């Protein structure tokens, strides 16, 4: 279970709270949708769950413990909307994927549905945004996460590419029992891909049933 | 009414240097057609990477120097070269850019909106800026924030405010509603409809096919750098069998409300 318990967060001691007493839980293999107005703290919650930000109060636990990865990737991987901002533009995609610690064999053996072998020696700007998002997803999966946080994964992609990427993600997460928190403003999308949808109109009332 | 903007067979190649002096030419647009008349909202939809944004930038003459163009762009009945289009940009034609990175990262939002208001010839830029943001549900405290402190949706509303301070004759909106909640998507699109009804020609580049159908007069569908279909918004209904081109149908069927279907189109 990926769990946020009574989590509070703000970007500075004098700034307003972005998250107030947030509770959120994702079970292994479960897909939870998180929907809400812009500026409501959805992306901030995603960063806290993935361990990129520490909560001011409360705690984030992965299967009961606070994760403290040293030489291994974090068990919660964050996949962002803009893959081009999440990669070193001067690395080939082979290098980008190898940065997860996966060996050259594992990179070469990636499912061509996810990453076509011909892309590996190209640079991020040399493939399209939809293709790059597939590489971004592949990178997160290579880190063998237990949970994925997909923050507006397909918000800047067309409907056909969006459908393809979600099918790829759901197939792989179901097969490996990876829990997914899908953050999006597109409620119809979440209703299709998620097992349940949490609405964040009032962040304090989000205790899961 | 005759078209204000008429793009015919626009092709754009980018010239790049590989190792040393070896040049290669990368085709980006291979045949784009687009017309927009005053009073009309035209939706431009299609695959990511099909060149929709590129087309918008090309129309405004904003492409980098290594771009090579071919085809014609007629504005107001006169064929215009990129330099002539560049001169119109920001005066008669306006781009509403896609990404937050188009805002100046080292200046607070207020200074940037006030600058837009001043360039638009508003007599009281301070008031105009505050009103433009208030109209979009953003309080005066937003004026003191820097772009990185805005959420994606807030930044987009700021950019809409900046682009519409002066009523342009042609507005090219590049993904104006990505990351916005449905409520704001509707009000933003309704604002474009209003601009068009007031005589502006509006081109909306978007992925949100469903939302834009309510306001668009025509839907132009492109794929892999070319225009493949022009459809009536009313044809997007049911299983999409009224749509002529297979790619238009695939796009319609892949929408979450239509079941997120992946059909055989690559």
TrEMBL record, chain A:
Pfam families, alphabetized: ABC_tran
All residue ranges annotated as the ABC transporter domain in the record: 2-208
Keyword line: ATP-binding, Nucleotide-binding, Transport
Gene3D superfamilies registered for this protein in UniProt: P-loop containing nucleotide triphosphate hydrolases
GO molecular function: ATP binding; ATP hydrolysis activity
GO BP terms, alphabetized: transmembrane transport
Presence of the UniProt keyword Transport in the record: yes
Stated family: Belongs to the ABC transporter superfamily.
PANTHER family: D,D-DIPEPTIDE TRANSPORT ATP-BINDING PROTEIN DDPF-RELATED, TRANSPORT ATP-BINDING PROTEIN
Name used for this protein in its record: Peptide/nickel transport system ATP-binding protein
UniProtKB/TrEMBL annotation, chain B:
Reaction(s) this enzyme catalyzes, per UniProt: Ni(2+)(out) + ATP + H2O = Ni(2+)(in) + ADP + phosphate + H(+)
Entry superkingdom: Bacteria
Topology of this chain in the membrane: Peripheral membrane protein
GO molecular function terms listed in the Swiss-Prot or TrEMBL record: ABC-type nickel transporter activity; ATP binding; ATP hydrolysis activity
UniProt-listed SUPFAM superfamilies: P-loop containing nucleoside triphosphate hydrolases (SSF52540)
Enzyme Commission (EC) number: 7.2.2.11
Pfam families: ABC_tran
GO CC terms: plasma membrane
Keyword line: ATP-binding, Cell membrane, Ion transport, Membrane, Nickel, Nickel transport, Nucleotide-binding, Translocase, Transport
Residues in ABC transporter domain copies: 7-249
Principal location: membrane
Subcellular location: Cell membrane
InterPro entries in alphabetical order: AAA+_ATPase (IPR003593), ABC_Ni/Peptide_Import (IPR050388), ABC_transporter-like_ATP-bd (IPR003439), ABC_transporter-like_CS (IPR017871), P-loop_NTPase (IPR027417)
Family: Belongs to the ABC transporter superfamily.
Subunit structure: The complex is composed of two ATP-binding proteins (NikD and NikE), two transmembrane proteins (NikB and NikC) and a solute-binding protein (NikA).
Name of the protein this chain belongs to: Nickel import system ATP-binding protein NikD
Naturally occurring in which organism (per UniProt): Blastococcus haudaquaticus
């Amino acid at each position: 279970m990926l769990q946020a318990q009574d989590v509070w967060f703000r970007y500075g001691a004098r700034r307003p709270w972005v998250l107030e007493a947030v509770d959120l839980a994702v079970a292994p293999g479960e897909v939870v949708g998180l929907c809400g107005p812009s500026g409501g703290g959805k992306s901030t919650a995603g960063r806290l769950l993935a361990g990129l930000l520490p909560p001011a109060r409360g705690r984030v636990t992965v299967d009961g413990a606070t994760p403290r990865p040293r030489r291994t990737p974090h068990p919660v991987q964050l996949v962002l909307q803009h893959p081009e901002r999440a990669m070193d533009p001067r690395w080939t995609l082979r290098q980008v994927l190898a940065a997860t610690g996966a060996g050259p064999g594992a990179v070469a053996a990636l499912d061509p549905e996810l990453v076509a072998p011909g892309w590996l020696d190209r640079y991020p700007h040399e493939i399209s945004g939809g293709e790059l998002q597939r590489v971004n997803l592949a990178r997160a999966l290579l880190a063998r996460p237990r949970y994925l946080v997909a923050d507006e994964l397909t918000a800047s992609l067309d409907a056909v590419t969006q459908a393809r990427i979600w099918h790829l993600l759901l197939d792989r997460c179901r097969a490996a029992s990876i829990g997914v928190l899908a953050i999006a403003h597109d409620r119809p999308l979440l209703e299709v891909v998620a097992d349940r949808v949490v609405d964040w109109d009032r962040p304090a009332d989000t205790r899961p049933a | 009414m005759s078209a204000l903007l008429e793009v015919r067979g626009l092709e754009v190649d980018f010239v790049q240097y590989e190792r040393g002096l070896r040049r290669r030419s990368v085709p980006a647009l291979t045949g784009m057609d687009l017309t927009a008349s005053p009073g009309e909202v035209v939706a431009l939809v299609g695959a990511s990477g099909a060149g929709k944004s590129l087309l918008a930038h090309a129309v405004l003459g904003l492409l980098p120097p290594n771009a090579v163009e071919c085809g014609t762009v007629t504005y107001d009945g006169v064929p215009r070269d990129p330099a002539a289009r560049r001169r119109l940009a920001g005066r008669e034609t306006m781009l509403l850019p896609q990404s937050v990175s188009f805002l100046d990262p080292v200046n607070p939002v207020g200074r940037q909106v006030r600058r837009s208001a001043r360039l638009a010839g508003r007599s009281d830029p301070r008031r105009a800026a505050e009103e433009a943001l208030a109209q979009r549900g953003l309080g005066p405290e937003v004026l003191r924030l820097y772009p990185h402190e805005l959420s994606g949706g807030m930044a987009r509303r700021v950019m809409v405010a900046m682009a519409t301070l002066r009523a342009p004759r042609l507005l090219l909106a590049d993904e104006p509603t990505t990351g916005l909640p449905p409520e704001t998507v509707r009000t933003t699109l309704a604002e474009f409809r209003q601009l068009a009804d007031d005589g502006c020609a509006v081109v909306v580049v978007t992925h949100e096919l469903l939302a834009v159908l309510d306001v668009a007069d025509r839907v132009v569908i492109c794929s892999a750098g070319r225009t493949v279909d022009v459809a009536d918004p009313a044809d997007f209904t049911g299983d999409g069998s009224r749509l002529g081109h297979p790619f238009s149908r695939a796009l319609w069927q892949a929408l979450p409300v239509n079941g997120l279907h992946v059909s055989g189109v690559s």
